[in-house]
Design brief:
Shape: globular
Order of helices and strands: EHEHEHE
Structural class: alpha/beta
Strand content: 15-25%
Helix content: 25-40%
Radius of gyration: 13 Å
Length: 95
Amino acid sequence: MEGGKILLVEDNPDDVELIQRALKSHNVINEMVVAHDGVEALDYFFGPGAEERPLPHLVLLDLKLPRVDGHEVLRRLRSAERTRLLPVVILTTSD
């Protein structure tokens, strides 16, 4: 994937670093924007100025997020015309 942004929605800083290192080690050089919870992710897509902001080429979405969980973020992305076809990869961890 060349040139397009990746939006990573992840609240754990260790997982953010791990994902960034993994992508870099596989020569993925896309700019990455990080949203730290579901509210930040929804603001990115639907908040002030969102209509003028280009959509990312890919969303990496954790399901276990504070404030608004990943299931709700995905539901909102799929229900909006502008984001319904956006590629989303679900990430989650457990103990």
